Amino acid sequence: MDSSEIAERIWLAIAQGRLAPGARLKEEELAESFEVGRARIRSVLLQLSREGLVDIIPNKGAQVAAPGVQEARDVFYLRSTVETRVAAQLTGQLTPQAADDLRDIVRREREAIADGHLADVIRLSGLFHLKLAELTGSSVLQSILRDLISRSSLITAVYRDTGYFNCGPDEHDAIVEALMGGNEDEVLRLVSEHIEHLRADLNLTSEQQPVKNLRDIFEL
Ligand SMILES: [Zn+2]
């Protein structure tokens, strides 16, 4: 299994809440679970730590990052700031092809929800937001948003109140149509409200959570 696939599996286990914040990520156990060498696991863990999903603690090893309540609030504040900037730049500027690409992501998101494919739901929800950033052509907006969305997934896994993660395909559709319509006030209102809904689904009143066994999580 290559590094990106391992990273994806660990990311998903975190995003789906199977791997709790603070859980130890032992190189040896992971190497065994994925049937690869420890050097590969080490590079995957480094990559995940750059994305804010894993903390590497000297003399102790890696563990799933455990974002605090304040960090969670900061991440959603930043998302709102960055994403309204993205939306303002795209208002009235989407090509018909770009709009179709966005609608296609939303369509796949709906299918994933209907099929109960949580992993795809999480991935496609994030992809919608990343695609908007990509369409601005700004590499700084894109890389900052990629980082914020990784962190949001972890925060959502930790602080989601109950039930199913769902970014909201109806709201995504409304954003695409408003971008095409070209009314910036309308676009900014929809984007702000959407991020606010994501934040409102979280229980940010208390710090969270227990730890599980790695072997149970990565049973292949
Ligand atoms: Zn969304």
From TrEMBL:
Domain HTH gntR-type: from-to ranges: 1-67
InterPro entries (alphabetical): GntR_C (IPR011711), TF_FadR/GntR_C (IPR008920), Tscrpt_reg_HTH_GntR (IPR000524), WH-like_DNA-bd_sf (IPR036388), WH_DNA-bd_sf (IPR036390)
Entry annotated with the keyword Disulfide bond: no
Highest taxon, organism lineage: Bacteria
Molecular-function GO terms, alphabetical: DNA binding; DNA-binding transcription factor activity
Transcription among keywords: yes
A Pfam family recorded for this sequence: GntR
Keywords per UniProt: DNA-binding, Transcription, Transcription regulation
Entries under PANTHER family matching the protein: HTH-TYPE TRANSCRIPTIONAL REPRESSOR NANR, TRANSCRIPTIONAL REGULATOR, GNTR FAMILY
Name the record gives this protein: GntR family transcriptional regulator
